[in-house]
Amino acid sequence: MSIIIRGGTVVNADRAFKADVLCFGDKIVAVGENLDAPASATVIDASGQYVMPGGIDPHTHMNLPFMGTVTADDFFTGTAAGLAGGTTTIIDFVIPSPQQSLMEAYHQWRGWAQKAAGDYTFHVAITWWDESVHRDMGTLVRDHGVNSFKHFMAYKNAIMADDETLVKSFRRCLELGAIPTVHAENGELVYQLQQDLIRQGLTGPSSHPLSRPPAVEAEAANRAIAIADVLHTPVYIVHVSCQESLEAITRARANGQRVYGEALAGHLIIDDSVYQSEDFEFAAAHVMSPPFRSKQHQAALWHGLQGGNLHTTATDHCTFCAEQKAAGKNDFSKIPNGCGGVEDRMAVIWDAGVNTGRLTPSEFVKVTSANAAQIFNIYPRKGLIAVGSDADIVVWDPQGTRTISAKTQHNKGGFNVFEGRTVKGIPSTTLAAGKIVWHQGELRAVEGAGRHIDRPAFKPVTAT
Ligand SMILES: NC(=O)NCCC(=O)O
Ligand SMILES: [Zn+2]
Ligand SMILES: [Zn+2]
């Protein structure tokens, strides 16, 4: 049951140092130079490699019923793909349909997640409001390890939260010691712009970014931040894709507000030229919201990560295959929104972040695990290599290379937005809860081995 990782450089968010790491059961039990280990221990040679906390992807959608279909990846295939890429924990979303009870939806998602091969935990979306929602938020925080609630400011006529819901839910979050998170896009504007474009006969995927320009995102980001300011709550903005939203976050933080921002690997790497393809399948495969943006916005996002105004990196992993995307063949607004990435996030961010000198290895750890663990209150259990932390570890070979392709990926969907990109810096071994789940290209994911991770509230819960 013991594993010793020998001779590597341990990288935590605060420093990097030479050390062996000894794991017993699902925990790290010693970190230091020339450690003794039981004779029966499995030895992993990490010389010339980095030993880092397993990645935390704070934004995925496995098994999601969405836009008339269900994502291609379930909790097994999605988390297994994550393990292959060095991500050992995901934070997924329970998304009740309007009028569905929060508790019913929560238990539905917990049931689907029984298959997970890696650890998981949930944000719960507030898609409507009444007294039962108020009550169930309390139950979720008190009894079910939920400390974050999600608000979709987009997706009108579906899961969009109006201002009344935002205000009441943010207030309730404050009372409970939970953190509100938002998908910031003005859903009414998106809806009207979609109708305008369709009326003009502009029905193809190239209209998708036109219906969701940066100002639509920035309006919602500014509104969510203003609501949080008035109510004195923190707020976490998911998938920040444009300079204007980043500026809103930067401004609020400079004024002393506790605002966090998340960047997606896709938004950091891929630009909006993908929507100009004549090939419907290719362009539709990139339809996600907010859309991919220009290189100028990409550069701003990197600056946000470097400057500490964006804190986490995620994928918004939400895969649909070509047949599912074809639902929008004659109307881009019906293309199921979402792209994959859970397997590739760590490698593409290392390659485009560390190899280019934008991020140090410790900064990489911050934005791929430690910050998410701290913001969502599972630190130091996750996001740290230290005695007592979970043995979720990625041994990272900075010289290893891989050319990303849908042909070799482990997740479903049959498409990869990073197709053909060769990355330098890959996981040679992944440990999840003290088990080797990825080793030298071999995936050893076990269905059902993942655990639900409770996330305590940020203060003792006294509210009813
Ligand atoms: N992002 C996306 O296009 N699909 C998943 C749902 C969401 O996060 O908005
Ligand atoms: Zn979203
Ligand atoms: Zn999402």
UniProtKB/TrEMBL annotation:
The protein's name: D-hydantoinase/dihydropyrimidinase
Reactions accelerated catalytically: 5,6-dihydrouracil + H2O = 3-(carbamoylamino)propanoate + H(+)
GO biological process: nucleobase-containing small molecule metabolic process; pyrimidine-containing compound metabolic process
Cofactor(s) the protein needs: Zn(2+)
Quaternary structure note: Homotetramer.
GO terms assigned for molecular function: dihydropyrimidinase activity; metal ion binding
Modified residues (N6-carboxylysine): K150
Pfam families the record matches: Amidohydro_1
The keyword Ubl conjugation is annotated on this UniProt entry: no
Protein function: Catalyzes the hydrolysis of dihydropyrimidines and of the structurally related DL-5-mono-substituted hydantoins, to produce N-carbamoyl-D-amino acids.
